[in-house]
Amino acid sequence: MSDIKNQVQNIDPNAKARDLHSLIKETNNIYETLSIISSRARQLSVDIKQELHGKLDEFAVNSETIEEIQENKEQIEISKFYEKLPNASVIAMNEYLEGKLEVKYRDLDESEK
Known about the structure:
Blueprint: H1 4-7, H2 20-23, H3 30-57, H4 73-84, H5 88-97
């Protein structure tokens, strides 16, 4: 995944009402469109989670006692940044509306037709 900071910099994190006709312009099917957007949202969610865990693993301390918990300001800042990111669904919707998503369909076998 490319740098998430650059990818979501100008995206409004709030969900807003969308014109249904502009959403189904490419597919002519609302269910297919929502399936495309939700699939991309799942991919983004996994990518963001992996990126966050990768950055927080640098701060992991293998300590056996609970009293030795340390507060790290850099770790807190990283966590706050990821909390402020737009929801993966909002990012995926934005990508779809901007035409950044490429959809590939599986070929159907004769038995599936």
